[in-house]
Design goal:
- Helices cover 63% and strands 7% of the residues.
- It has 274 residues and is mainly α.
Length: 274
Amino acid sequence: MWLDVGLLSLFAAYATKTCMQNGEWFHHSEFNVTWSNYSSCRATENSSVHEGVSEVHVNRIQTMYSLGYGISLIALTVAIFIMIYFRRLHCPRNTIHLNLFMAFVLRALLSFLKDNLHVIHIELFQEIEEFAPGRYRYQSPSGSHWQCKILFTTFHYVQLTSSAWVFIEGFYLYILVTVTIFSERRYIRWCTLLGWAGPLLFLVPWVIIRATIEDDLCWNTHPTTGYFWILKCPQVAIVVINFVFFINIVRVLFTKLVRTAPPRARKYRYRWGQ
């Protein structure tokens, strides 16, 4: 059985299938497939004007972020090579930078892989085919396959990992400024564990929910927003926490500057007064 996915626009609408008197699904004579009616899920004629404009904007946005990821990938690869090649740069502090660079390299690679293997944001190219202009269908009755779900699960893991290492960078800088003495090597071990294993605390529950409750398409759509916030909430929290770190670091540095160099500060004030 083939599943016609067409060009769906209204994911909140309903599709229908007709069960015949013999207990079998209605068979479309023109396409020679078991047919599902997705007409209510497609855009109306009034929205046809906006489809072209929307497609142009989507393509431009994709080109922009692909260019950004490409530049970032080249720069990060060069930085990783430099930090590994020169032994003088081998220190606990640069280990954090190296892990951060590697996380963002993986994020760029997964982004390119996702965009090149995915067809109309529904399925991998080997699992779907175009049987008419702008019309697509699955090649199996089970719909989306595990390869595509693994791809998006890995992509979400890399997103969480890069956010985790951004948090570790901010926290490490905060520790350097506020704490006088601490063990860098022991800190690096815990940071490595947090950066690469910590995201699993959020990813595993999301995978379980998607596999048991909301196993839709390629796990790239999010009908229930609350489930998607399992992944987004830690990323938003990291942005807020890092901003708090930034404010506190500026406050501590300003306080230390005022306390340690009052004569110089008075000298500058005297010059400004003149």
